[in-house]
Amino acid sequence: MTAEMTRAGALEIVADVLKHELVICNIGAPSQELCAIADRPGNFYMLGSMGQAAAIGLGLALAQPRPVLAIEGDGAVLTSLGTLATIASNPAPNFTLLILDNASYGSTGDQPTHTAGRTDLAAVARACGVENVVECAGAGLAGALAAALRGGAMTVIICKIAPGNRKVPVIGMDPVQIRCRFMDEVRRSEG
Amino acid sequence: MQSKTILRDLEAAGIGFAASVPCKQLAGVIAGLAASPRIRHLPATREDEGMGLCAGAYLGGLRPVMVMQNTGLGVSVNVLATLIQFYRLPLPMLISYRGEVGEAVACQAEMAIHTKPLLAQLHVPTYHFHHPRDVAELPGILAHAFTISKPVAVLMDAGFWTGDQP
């Protein structure tokens, strides 16, 4: 399982670990796979705006007390590397960024990203000033994620996975439906 | 006075979160945001990231505002269309309007020429502050953004900032 785990396998682990956390999920295959594996009102699926899940997650974590998990891919993070500096300099204790690094643009045909070459996102996150950077692979994700979500300190996890997409449907929900459902869930927990 | 009035209006409108990318015309507003006990301010590395931060803050129950220069509009088009508008999120944007008459830096005019056409193409309601007294419209514009749940742009040119002493 370890070396061969793809994004869908990683998202199954994420779904098992999740309890009441709020989730912001990256555009394309990651959101489609998460929706198919474990749809829940506390999931906000990105249908556009590649590279913004981490920023949205940080804003959400700063705005309310529930733990927030942002799920990004390596390609998405590479479009917005500055965001790692923003989250490092404004750490929210209830925020976890999980980067599923399959070294490829999975939603567009598995073209290699620069993490397939010389770029090390864990080193980038550390250089940006992130204090808690955790690297894991395969089944190690479960323990790393649970510790980050319940540890009370902002954490960036880089989980190495294999390229590959599961055949799942496109998300059929309207974006306004996704966000109203999500905001109802945020408000419910405050009540 | 403009900067102080803007800060007072933002707080009075219930704004709880601000993201900014700086402009010298906005220095007073940004300093005020950084010092505000009622508004959580985050400096963003880019304007689209700032809009992402604002979207998250709104999902979490805070009223956001984006503070930026008009040159940042170009990198923000995708996020405005596919995040802020697609999910129907309110976002007042206070935008310094560089490159208009009085501008000392010639290159600023290049994006100034595209600023209003881009906002019009995106169907973003846009208001242009040219004189210091125009700030009186700000409370209404802020309320309007949250009523209609859309991004709304306020362009503030060099004439507007005349005599501003933050």
Describe the structure.
Chain A is α/β, with parallel strands linked by helices and 191 residues long. Chain A is built from eight helices and eight strands; from the N terminus they run αβαβαβααβββαβαβα. In chain B, 40% of the residues lie in helices and 20% in strands. Chain B has helices at 2-12, 27-35, 47-59, 77-85, 108-121, 138-148; strands spanning 15-20, 40-43, 63-69, 91-96, 126-129, 151-156. Chain B has a six-stranded parallel sheet, with helices on both faces. In chain B, β3, α4 and β4 (91-96) form a beta-alpha-beta unit. In chain B, α1 (2-12) crosses α2 (27-35). The longest helix of chain B is centred in the last third of the chain and has 14 residues, at 108-121. The radius of gyration of chain B is 14 Å and the shape is globular.
Structural shape of chain A: globular
Number of helices of chain B: 6
Q: Spatial order of the strands in the main sheet of chain A?
A: 2-1-3-4-8-7
DSSP strand tally of chain A? 8
Q: Separation of termini of chain A?
A: 41 Å
Oligomer: heterodimer
Note the main sheet of chain A: 6 strands, parallel
Number of helices of chain A: 8
Averaged pLDDT of chain B:
97
Question: How are helices and strands ordered from N to C of chain B?
Answer: HEHEHEHEHEHE
Structural class of chain A: alpha/beta
| Gap between N and C termini of chain B | 6 Å
Radius of gyration of chain A, in Å, reads: 15 Å
Helix content of chain B: 40-55%
SS elements, strand count of chain B: 6
Shape of chain B: globular
Key features of this structure:
A: 191 residues, alpha/beta, 8 helices, 42% helix, B: 166 residues, six-stranded parallel sheet, 6 helices
List the helices and strands and how they pair.
The complex is a heterodimer of chains A (191) and B (166).
Chain A: H1 7-17, E1 22-25, H2 29-38, E2 43-45, H3 53-63, E3 68-73, H4 74-79, H5 82-89, E4 95-101, E5 104-105, E6 111-112, H6 121-128, E7 132-137, H7 140-150, E8 155-160, H8 175-190
Parallel strand pairs in A: 1-2, 1-3, 3-4, 4-8, 7-8
Antiparallel strand pairs in A: 5-6
Chain B: H1 2-12, E1 15-20, H2 27-35, E2 40-43, H3 47-59, E3 63-69, H4 77-85, E4 91-96, H5 108-121, E5 126-129, H6 138-148, E6 151-156
Parallel strand pairs in B: 1-2, 1-3, 3-4, 4-6, 5-6
Helix pairs in contact in B: 1-2, 3-4
